[in-house]
Every structure is written in structure tokens, then in C-alpha cells.
Amino acid sequence: MSSSQRTLGSAKQLLRKELKEKLRQMSHQDKAEQSKIITTKLFSMDIYKQSKSISLYLNMPTEVFTSDILADIFKSNKVCYIPRYIGKDMDMVYLKDQDDYDKLPVTSWNIKQPNDDEKRESSLNGNGLDLVIVPGLGFTKSGFRLGRGKGYYDQYFHKYENVFLKKPTTIGLAYTCQIKESLPIDDFDVQLDYVLYP
């Protein structure tokens, strides 16, 4: 590892710590209010309205809430995919309806996802995705993103591009405190198409 990579790595670690602290200090009410504004913005976007198949993260307590988005996806008869993390790998797998969601087990990260051994259709086997809604710790308004350091989403986007020869449209959801002027990024970090914040 070069010294510039090490410097970049430690800059990311410091920023992650700072952002996690800011998120911890947010009240539930503040998160709920900001999430509502962000969700309304998303629903007004043409790309969301026109998307037939959407991948949506199921939020951790510190992330922008996505339950209203999930309900709207089902109500609008869009096809829904959600992340499933197994070891160092993440795939987007099919979620049939609200009942399917309600029955999902909860992981040690306090998010729902299908069991590792449960057979689910992968987004990489079908016709692809129109839209991927992405969580993160930090974002710039221009679409750069700081994740939690595992590289799940960046790896997924690179895999997706290898299969479909294009990237899906991507939207990051962020609280106001997660928006930064700039972020420490490298060549592997995938830039998002949009970032929505209050």
C-alpha cells in the first residue's frame, strides 16, 4: 500500500468517526422530519416515477428512513430489490411485497435481510435495475459518497457494469449533517447521479 493510499485511508477513517458522532446526536424526531422531506423530493423525481425496478436499502437507525419509500414501491407495483450482505459480498435480491418484508429476519446490524441460504432472485440475473437508492455516511452535492468502509456498494456497481455494460441510475439519501464540501475519494469510489437532502 502506497503512502498516499494510507493517508487517504486514515482521512476516511477520521471523517467516518466524525459523521457517526453527528448522526448519533440527531434526535429521532429530527431524523423523521428530514426523512419526510427527502422522501417527498424523491417521489417528485421523474426518474423515480418512471422506474419499474428499484433497489432500496432498508435503513439502519442512523440512516435516512426508507419505510415510506418501500410502501410506495409496492403500492406503485414497481419491482423491489434489497441488499443482502454475505461475508464480503453484497447482492440485491428480490423482495415480493410488504408481507415478505415483515417476515424477514433481523441481522446483527439491526436491519432486515433474507437468510444467507434462502433462494432469492438476484438483480444481476434479470433485466437489471432502473434505480438504486443508496445509503452512506457522507456525501457531496455532486454525488461523491463515503460509505462505512466495506466497499459493498462500489463493488456492486462494478459487478453490475460488467454484467449490463452500464451503470444503473443512483440516488444517495442524506441528512443535512452528512453533506460535505468535499470527501477523500479514490478511483474505485463510484460517483452517484443524485444526492437528496433537506
From TrEMBL:
Binding site for ATP: K12, Q13, L14, L15, R16, R145, L146, G147, R148, G149, K150, G151, Y152, Y153
Entry keyword set: ATP-binding, Ligase, Magnesium, Metal-binding, Nucleotide-binding
This protein's GO CC annotations: mitochondrion
Coiled coil: none
Enzyme class, spelled out: ligase
GO molecular function terms noted in the UniProt entry: 5-formyltetrahydrofolate cyclo-ligase activity; ATP binding; metal ion binding
The reaction(s) this protein catalyses: (6S)-5-formyl-5,6,7,8-tetrahydrofolate + ATP = (6R)-5,10-methenyltetrahydrofolate + ADP + phosphate
GO annotation, biological process: folic acid-containing compound biosynthetic process; tetrahydrofolate interconversion
Pfam family, one: 5-FTHF_cyc-lig
InterPro entries assigned to the protein according to its UniProt record, in alphabetical order: FTHF_cligase (IPR002698), FTHF_cligase-like_sf (IPR024185), NagB/RpiA_transferase-like (IPR037171)
Domain of life: Eukaryota
EC number annotated for this UniProt entry: 6.3.3.2
Cofactor(s) needed for function: Mg(2+)
Residue numbers binding substrate: L58, E63
PANTHER family, sorted: 5-FORMYLTETRAHYDROFOLATE CYCLO-LIGASE, ATPASE INHIBITOR/5-FORMYLTETRAHYDROFOLATE CYCLO-LIGASE
Family: Belongs to the 5-formyltetrahydrofolate cyclo-ligase family.
The protein, known as: 5-formyltetrahydrofolate cyclo-ligase
Organism: Hydra vulgaris
